[in-house]
Amino acid sequence: MKIMLIEDDNNKARAITSHLNQHGITEQHIIRAKNMSDFSAALSNDIGLFIIDLNLPNIDNGTTSQNGKAILECIIKAGKDDALLLAISSYPADFPELRDYFEANGCILANFQNKKGWQSTLDHLLTQLKKNIRFDFLIFCALQEERNPYIALTPGKHIVRGGIDCFDIELGENKGSVILLPQMGLVNAAITAGACIDKFKPKMVGMSGICGGFEGRAELGQLIISSMAYEYQSGKWASDGFLNEPYQVPTDHLTLTNLKALINDPDLINRIESGHKGARPSAAHSPVAGIFTSGSAVIADKKFIEQIKSIHRKVTALDMEVFAIHRAAELSPHKPPCICAKTVVDLCDSKKDDSIHSYGAYISAKFLIEAVKDFFRQR
């Protein structure tokens, strides 16, 4: 995250910048806006702290006017209201008129002439800013076995943040974390994903791992990319049985189009299988985009599976978390695009075993790594 210093006075800007430098904030993390046009042009950056001057010209070499309220309103309307806000002014006589509006919107007013005062306030905000970690991407895994490939494939750092088990990695220039859910299932996935999206504000989220496939629609060892997901257990129990009411969450069109282009690469399966040591399926199958259905229980009953299969004539894969990840992203104010990919390791029957679990976790993780890189290349 960057700091935007909105200040036309060079002497004042130097004093504030020097204080930021003393706290380890380098020039590359400070955006200087000398007027309203500079401010508007830079507002799209990922900014964690705004340092605002109340009096600013509209354009280069323009006449200074009281633009403090306009700046604050623009920040809020641009959806940056979660950023930290500090207004440092050399004109404290303006404070009584502005205090109610600024403080109601979480912006602290500080007098530049009171050096110890504004520096102390800024120090407090910088401490808070360092705690507000943001990631470009988050990847969720329900099992340690599903996260292990990331640990083997990418250098990273294991850390627990507020009870969240994170493995921080970098893919190209983008920073992210592979998060291990506290337990399998829709509820754990929805709560963890919702909390992490709100806390870390990623530009995209994803999930990899293993799943079941419906016979005739998926093959053992086949990677399924989620084009849409729904919960098979939502609905109503009535006297004549269970009436399904599945709510569907699709992968957005642009993300899905790019994913389909990626899986159509004829060399993809060779790349994502490369490096795996251990059991493999008897035949390699090309990845496909398919529909996931999710529920809270492991299913190994053929009669029940046929009932679930009948809800949607094109449902491809069954798991316990994908719908929750999609739904958490959809409900978030940030609405990050969602990429979920899992490998079919059984056909939802009594013949379940774990012989290709490692293979499934490995190729889905390698695919997610490629998909994340491709996502940011496209942007």
TrEMBL record:
GO terms for biological process: L-methionine salvage from S-adenosylmethionine; nucleoside metabolic process. It comes from the Bacteria. GO terms for cellular component: cytosol. Residues 138-354 form the Nucleoside phosphorylase domain. GO terms for molecular function: adenosylhomocysteine nucleosidase activity; methylthioadenosine nucleosidase activity. This is Nucleoside phosphorylase.
